[in-house]
């Protein structure tokens, strides 16, 4: 009966030292027929040393496995040499014995012995040379193996060094990030504490303490640009809070808050805070002075502004909402492309916007204005004064309207002056009430002009006017008590003792 057991694979049946053999595993693949590794020229290979695999770029193809020479092969070689020498000696002695002469036979026998020994010595020398060649080949193979192992070891050391450096660099970066995070957290905590303390001071019952809170917030915003929007919001909220009318100390605190806001809205130094937006809806302001400020979206809708509110020389962008109550409003030399909204505004004193350069729309619907002046103002876009009441005089002398002008249902309680005004587009004065003198002398109308159903309660002058087309006066009326100068071609007839009727031909 044959015993059946587990057989060990030939690759693992014999222990081989890492110094004796390096098993190289190519990365290219295996031959489909024999299953042996296929090594492509120049392909990187992995070398197994001990129990680990090492990647050796450009390693030489794997050598054949070195087999240990058995000791009996040496004995077989010596035996073969002796047999060869014996056979040669035997043959030569046989040839020598065939000689007839005794002297010749003796000489031949000596030569035969000498020749046999020479053959034995030559054969032994050949075996010795073969063993020496094998020893040299083994030495060269070991040298090549040592070089491969040294290259793998150097590559491993390089990788270990690179990994160590990468780990150290990552650790350093991590420590730096932790330090930055800690510093940022500390700064944020300190900033929060300062902000909280300043707000608490602003809410104190003592006016002097509130003033200190204002200046603390101002300093905090000056030193921390990221907090400026929040601080401006807090100051605006403070101004929106109701306050007693007869508290002089609170009035001074509010004036200080206004000065803090406007001081940082002037683009004339390091104190400028760009990009700030003012939300002063419903606020109570006293002598608010934003002259020379740069305003992005300022909203004063519903605010009560006592004293004189100044925007002289301000640069406005976005939207400037002024639908509030003003004692006096000054917009002289205002410039910018902002949309200015005066809808439902109440100006009991005067409104002055002389020399203003308004690049956006101007809307002044349903407003009530005292004496108003727009001398030399330039309007780049549409201007609307529909349903607005001007209780005092209104002057648009030398004003330039690049867009359309609408003053429908507008009431002028005093003189309305448009002398040397320029209208580049349509100008509508329909249903407009002119309570006193109305002057369009030397004005220039490049577009259509309509005064349909307007009422002129005082003298009207169109002297020197330049018209691109005949204006419309459809059913307009003028008082009979004044002296009027109408454009050429205007049809005027007496309606009754008080009114003249103007019609279009």
From TrEMBL:
InterPro entries to which the protein is assigned, alphabetical: 5peptide_repeat
Keyword field: Membrane, Transmembrane, Transmembrane helix
Chain intervals for the UniProt region annotation (Disordered): 1-20
UniProt key word Transmembrane: yes
TM annotation in the entry: 71-93, 113-133
Name of protein: Pentapeptide repeat-containing protein
